[in-house]
Amino acid sequence: MNGHPPVWLHQALSRARFTSYVAAAAGDPERAQRLYWWNLQASAAFYGPLHCLEVALRNALHERLREKYGREDWWSAAPLSPEGRRKVERARANARQNSARRAGARPLVPDDVVAELTFGFWVELLSRRNDRLFWVPCLHRAFTGYSGRRDRLHRDLLSMVLLRNRVMHYEPIHHRDLAKDHQTVYRLMQYISPELAGEARRLDRVPDVLARRNDVCAGVHSSSF
Question: How many Cβ atoms from other residues are within 10 Å of residue 195's Cβ?
Fold first, then answer.
């Protein structure tokens, strides 16, 4: 490759998207292209562990809140913030639309809404503002393998939300400390379900992808992100 990316690359990926990789690769288009494909592989590898963490967190918190309020649609009784209520309404609307598109549509059930609530919604329930409302009375019991402070748990989960959003929106993650992220996602999963963490590790491709990082990312810096 010469000093310019091929035309098809800019057409397919957009100049703005690829330019950020060129900047991270110190202006070397060939290295930037390798970095782009490695970033894609890393994102794909993280999808599985992040999927398991998000679903496990959702179900664990839902179960504790269902117990506390004695109803499947616990959000109807829980003291959610205005933003939390808006997210529930949005989830209900999305669930209704999804149900309408399916053949043999059935009435909505609470599980439909639970499945539509975002990772960020669940993590927000563990924030400082919800310490006395949710963490102290019930949500701490969702993390049977954890006995530390709520704020540390929330901080780590929030970091995973940011990583998940970058992965799902096809954004760069190569500048992150991905080895640390990998440890964090499994540590959090372990707090909720050691069995799930064990199963997820059997299918995990992140270590293999990270092992190839030095070869692909030599000379790449992260100051442009």
Answer: 10
